[in-house]
Amino acid sequence: MPDLDTPGAATAPRPDARPQRSGHSRRLQAADGTLLHARYFPRRDGVDGDLAVVVAHGFTQSSHSPQMKRISSWLSEHASVVLLDLRGHGRSRGHSTLGWREVLDMDAAVSWARALGYRRVATLGFSLGSAVAVRHGALHRGVGAVAAVSVPGEWHYRGTAAMRTLLRLILTKPGRGLLRLLRRTRVSPSGWSTPDPIDARAAAAELDVPLLVVHGDEDGYFPVHHAWQVHAAAPSGSLWLERGFGHAEAGATESLVTRIGAWLDEHTLAVDPVRA
Question: Which residue stretches belong to region Disordered (predicted)?
Answer without folding.
Answer: 1-29
